[in-house]
Fold:
Amino acid sequence: MNADIRRGVFLKLFKKDSRGIAFSLDLLLALIPITIILGLVAANMGNIMYDTQDVVYRSSMERSAQDTSNALLKTSGNPYNWETLGASQLKSVGLAKYDNSNKLPLEYVLSTDKVGSIAPANVQSMLGSQYSYQLLITTLNGRTVRDLNSVGNTKTKEDATDVVAVERIVSISEFDIVTEFKNVKLLSSRPPTYSDYFLTNRAYLDAFDYYVYVENSDKVSTAQTSWVRINGVTGNNVAVPPSAFQSTPTLVRYIDPDVQRLKNGATLQQNSVEVSLTLRSAQLGDTASVYIIRVPKGTPIQDITPENIHGVKAKYVLYVWTR
Structure:
């Protein structure tokens, strides 16, 4: 009897021990996949960190490219006429044309002067020294307007592993409007005199020709109260005499720098422009627009067209990559 009791006690102890062994085996089996996963994570930690770092770098690069493009295309710079000033007066650059009448930049409408004046170092300072770049502006028919590249570039766009591109459609004119009197309301008598100015110096006069361009000139009377004057020159030498307003929709007249006494000093100086327009026998409420146009020296007069004055569509692309 005692032997049976001892055997029963032993079996109970063995069952308890068996439950402990089963528990240990379950725990061991559960730890195996966890160990494998931790091993794989540890083995790929370098790749994970590299991919994370790459995402952070690309995000920073994209933000720099976008911020630089917005500043260039949506602002005129500070001061707004920075392209006419010395480098010591420049605070920031922008390419948007400045609307003198509204005192605001025209977003995505590029000034040819600003596009021509911007230097590679200007864009580099906006992006930061850690990036290389190419800024390319072309007309939609493929003509290159401006091609700027990094300062001290050590790696080309083709060699870069990752390149960010910011593309925008903009408007840019072949010629620059330096003064405008837009949509002047024509009156039948006693019209007001409108005035403004444009800047010239000897270098400008050596590089450019200047024209008066009038839209809706067929709506302007040939009365003595219709004229365009530059630097107060009147009489037979007035820039646009009353008789010039004939029955053609547009009027183009060359501005002789000697006759109109355009300023030709070493520094930029103002040339005054005065406009007086009287209504021809047409509907009240008609308007006309007068522009002073600056064109490259020797440009044929037939090339001064609305498309070349008011702008054509162009493609702006800023490529950015890490050095």
Remarks:
- The mean pLDDT is 85.
- The helical segments are 2-74, 112-117, 120-127, 202-207, 306-310.
